[in-house]
Design brief:
48% of the residues lie in helices and 14% in strands. It contains twelve helices and seven strands.
């Protein structure tokens, strides 16, 4: 969601109060004193790529930005108030369950995670939500063992394309993503992905596994349901031996691979959602 649209929606009260309740009191007070142009400027400075997490209030504003943007997507796509949503590679990020809870507390949220520490932190952060939350302690590829085909109205990939590719390459390289802290091993995974990319071997190594995940999602998604992808690039990647330019093209990489696979998805374009950073597809 572009920051102009977000600022206008925020200033005119189009977001429910649940979305801003997690903001620190001092930041919330600051936002309430701003006019719409000042709100837009603040979010523009925060979300400008590559995103600088060292800026004051950056993590809180980023979380608000995505929660509000995803809530607005549910509204614009007219998602059922009793929807079941499956999130790929949620980790301990909670923008989507919070957005879903603000949209309708009759919904169900599902994710799959083998990393127990990430799951523990996730459950702590979502303990106050009204929606039903389920974590499947298994690889997401096996979700058809737990749910019938066409079980979900929405399947979401929040900053997850990179996580999927990193996990695929980590498995090849023997990097344990289950028993290690994800954030501790992430630089190692990013560098491994970059080596494959620089050697021209990434597609050969990751395409089939990535498309298998999308094919599983195709089976799990109801007719007329949506896949929602988003991505962003943080400052500091290049200093890790990774590439901001490469990372910023992940949505386009996924778009090309999915189109090439002929799985039957159709892309949906919405005003205010930049196709570099967002992609919505329907079945």
């Amino acid at each position: 969601m572009n920051v102009h649209k977000l600022a206008k929606h925020y200033y005119t009260g189009k977001f429910p109060s649940q979305i801003e309740q997690y903001l620190p009191t001092a930041l919330l007070s600051q936002l309430h004193k701003m006019n719409v142009d000042e709100v837009e400027k603040l979010f523009d400075q925060t979300m400008r790529s590559p995103i600088d997490l060292s800026r004051q209030w950056s993590p809180e504003l980023i979380e608000f930005y995505y929660t509000a943007s995803l809530y607005n997507l549910f509204v614009e796509l007219d998602i059922s108030s009793h929807a079941s949503l499956y999130e790929i590679a949620a980790g301990d990020t909670v923008c989507i369950p919070r957005a879903l809870d603000a949209y309708s507390n009759n919904s169900t949220y599902v994710t799959a995670n083998l990393n127990k520490e990430l799951s523990r932190r996730f459950m702590q952060k979502t303990a106050d939500l009204s929606i039903q939350i389920k974590i499947i302690e298994d690889n997401g590829n096996n979700l058809l063992q737990y749910y019938e085909p066409q079980s979900f109205e929405v399947i979401s990939f929040h900053h997850a394309i990179n996580d999927i590719i990193q996990t695929i390459i980590a498995d090849i390289e023997g990097i344990d993503t289950v028993n290690n802290d994800w954030w501790t091993i992430e630089p190692q995974m990013l560098q491994a992905v970059m080596r494959y990319h620089n050697r021209g071997e990434l597609r050969r190594a990751a395409f089939e596994s990535f498309i298998n995940i999308i094919d599983t999602c195709m089976k799990l998604l109801k007719k007329g349901g949506y896949l929602i992808f988003d991505n962003c690039t943080y400052a500091g990647y290049d200093q890790m031996g990774y590439s901001s330019e490469f990372h910023s093209a992940y949505i386009q990489l996924a778009r090309e691979w999915i189109h090439e696979s002929n799985l039957g998805f159709k892309e949906v374009e919405l005003e205010g959602y930049d196709q570099q950073w967002w992609m919505m597809m329907t079945k």
